[in-house]
Every structure is written in C-alpha cells, then in structure tokens.
Amino acid sequence: MVLVGNSMLEINNVKTVLDKVFKIKDLGSLRYFLGLEIARSKSGIDMNQRKYALSLLEDAGTLASKPASTPFDPTVKLQLQKGTHIYDISSYRRLVGRLLYLTISRPDLSYALHQLSLFMCNPLDSHYKAAQPVLRYLKGSLAQGLFLSSTSPIHFSAFSDSDWACCLDSRKSITGFCIFMGSALISWKTKKQNIVSRSSSEAEYRALGSLVCELQWLKYLFTDLHIPQSNPISVYCDNKSTIHLAQNPIFHERMKHIEIDCHVVLEKIQQKLVHLLPISSSSQLANAFTKPLRASTFKSFVSKLGLCNIHRPT
Prior knowledge:
With 314 residues, the chain is an alpha+beta fold. 37% of the residues lie in helices and 18% in strands.
C-alpha cells in the first residue's frame, strides 16, 4: 500500500490505525512498488520499470539482441489476415500483456503496443515479428521513465491529434493525446476510434472530444485535492478546420453527424475550461501516439515528452 499526502502527521495517524488492525510493516519512503522503481531527489521524482523490463527481456530470450532505435517499424502495416497462424497463441498474448504494463511509465511504447494489442484474438506470425522491435527498443532504453519535476508549475497544457482512416481492416482512425502539468507528462492515450470518420476533420474532432473529457476529469480531481485551476487549459491542435469549427457554433450540413463531439468541445470552450490553439504538425507532440515515426523524428518527440534515462540523465 502507498500512502500519499501533504501532512506527515496525518500519514502517521493512518499508519497507526492500520497497524492496530492489520499489523503492517512500514517500509519507509517509496522506492519500489509493483514493478515501479521510484527515485527521489531535490529536483523531482523519476519513475521507471527497469527491473520489470529486464525480467521481461530475460524471459523472452532477447537480452543479447541488438538495440533498436524505435519500437515500431514505420514501413510495417499490420492486418488481421496478413500472415500465417502461429502455433503458440498464448505466448503472443502473454508477451503483449506484459509489455502493456510497461506503459505505466513508458508512454513512448503506447502506439506500438496499441497496434500489437489489436490482434490478441488471432495473432499471426507477422504480428509476432512486429513485437520484436519493441523488445529490441526496450533493450536499449531499460532505465527510461517519467520524470516529475519538483519545480514544475501547476498548469495544464495538452496536445490532441488523430491519424485518419489508418486501420487497413476497418478504416477507423486513431485518437492520440497527451497532457502535461508544467513539464511533467501526467496523462496520455492511444486508442482506435469506435466508428469510421468520413473526414480528417471529423477524426480530429473526435480526438479533441476525448481529450476535453479527460481534462474535465483532471480538473475535478485537482479540485478535490484543493488545487483549483482558474485559467483555461491550453489545447494544441494541428488541424485548422477543427479549430475553426470549434469556434463556430453553426454546424454545417456535412458536419451534423459529429454534433455531439462539437457540442462537448464548444461547451468547454465557452466555459473557459480549454483554450484551443493552432500548432504545426512538426511540433505536435501527440504525433508519437497516433503513428509510427522514423528514428530521428521519434527521438525528438520522445525527448519532449519529459522522459528521462537514469543512466543518461542529460
């Protein structure tokens, strides 16, 4: 059990009450919990899963493999029926399931693992081969994890993006977003949208709607923690049509089918929860959550996500 609070007196009182009932053992400051390694310093908190990742690579027999620069090959296009059946389906499911646990502290793996998890019901050899670069990338970045700066301001900013009709089997789009508190990444998502979008603007708007709902929940959470957010949250989107539509309450004929998402975003803009801002595609940090990137681009985006390698902190 992890106890978190801003009053050591209250934390000690809770531990005393728990000890009387359950006879607990106090392990002191948090260092290791369910595979998460926590390193604290005056500059902030580093959270990684190095020991868990090392165990995973050892079980997969890839400790001696050559490291990869990215977790997913941009030239690979996975499909449900493209490949041959593998003998041991459970091994693929077990591997992907264990890899998914790494996304707690490794947002750089989100897109690759999202793609691999789409084929859990019927994995093929092509899907299993696509998982190997993830293991090789992990080999070269074992100690990488999230860094939460102690001097980071308590102010939210967010990035929203989508990859339109990218699924070759269903032509559904992918939603991707990331949310920062100051310089610290605190929430992110990669998810295939539930229905097919008929335009890139529609796909972007659905991604934006998901992000706005997440921001609303975070605002409620921080209000409960007595940390209210009075200023609108800056939300960056690289689709001009989506921004114009969000600022125009008149729905055109071709956009009526996404009226609900339009209303959600428009309502939160009017309530001053969010402030929608344009951004270039080259600066869109959510790109890493919606599509595979080449090595140089991927490295640049990952460095901006606030990830830190404890072996190479610079």
